[in-house]
Amino acid sequence: MKQIGVAVIGTGFWGRNHARVFTELPETKLIAVCDMDSERAEKVGKQFGAKPYTNTGKMLKREDIEAVSVCTWSTSLAKEAQKALEAGKHVLVEKPMATNTKQAEKLLKTAEKEGLHLTVGFLMRFIPGVQQIRKAVEQKQIGELVCATSRRVSQWPERIGDVGVVKDTAIHDIDLMRYIFNEEPIAVYAKTGNMRHKKFEDYAHIMLTFKEGKNAFIESNWLTPYKTRTLVVTGSTAIMKLDYITQELTIENEKETLQPRIAWLEPLKAELQHFANCIRKKEKPLITGVDGLNALKIAEAAFKSSATGKAVKLK
Fold this sequence. Notes:
The model has no long low-confidence stretch (mean pLDDT 96). By secondary structure, this protein is an alpha/beta fold. A 9-stranded mixed β-sheet has the order 14-13-12-11-7-10-9-8-15. The chain has a 6-stranded parallel β-sheet with strand order 3-2-1-4-5-6, with helices on both faces. 44% of the residues are buried. The protein contains 9 helices and 15 strands. The longest helix is centred in the C-terminal third of the chain and has 20 residues, at 289-308. Helix content is 37%, strand content 28%. The N and C termini lie far apart (44 Å). Helix 1 crosses helix 8 (267-281), helix 6 packs across helix 7 (165-181) and helix 7 (165-181) packs across helix 9 (289-308). Strand 13 and strand 14 (257-258) form a beta hairpin. It has 2 domains: 4-116, 3-Layer(aba) Sandwich (Rossmann fold); 125-262 and 297-313, Dihydrodipicolinate Reductase, domain 2 (2-Layer Sandwich), CATH 3.30.360.10.
């Protein structure tokens, strides 16, 4: 198997995980890492046997690098992803993909023009339980889909410094609701605010309305003293509950409660392996740049709804 040469831009907490996984996959070879902090770049490069860089442009000139993971701060994601695409590299850019939809649209146009893969780091889709829920909804194993509720709450993560809870955590659930319902919401109603953190919102309650009266409810905050990551999907004949952390799935109907035995899977490893295989086989990835753009549009609509106190219709 020919290994794909890869690089990681941004070697903070999550970038280090990308570097680690790339060294563990048989499909990829970690060539280089890049970070503006030279000491951090050198430390991660040494740890995973990769060439450290502090200049993205210099690193991207290497012909043995075919694909790049962009794991910088949220406000720098689009700029670094744009550089990589213009250098002819396939790109996996972490969520929220860009600061605004204009930046995201530019990334899509560049990727299409250059014939490159552009995917967004919504790794929750790769959790086996999420795949089972999507399949159950499609095949109406839980009857007609009624609603879905997600809760993603915890204390403030100190690594975050340039976005609030909507673009850091709730955007995962925005994408998941689009994926599970297999359609775009038609309206957004939201309330966001600051309780302990002055610079960015630290809580958000978002309701997405879909066709035929279906709804999704998203609760996200940096206020709760313990970490909770759950998804509940309600159908007309059964309810499915998923704990994202343990990956335990529960199915309840009028007769019984079932807990299917599902092997635990590291979502990031599944995501990066899928990214590499899509490049090798020239296949469309599960998550495209359009998914990232649409999730970002919904997040922006949530801010608008909160500011106006009204539901925002989506095109």
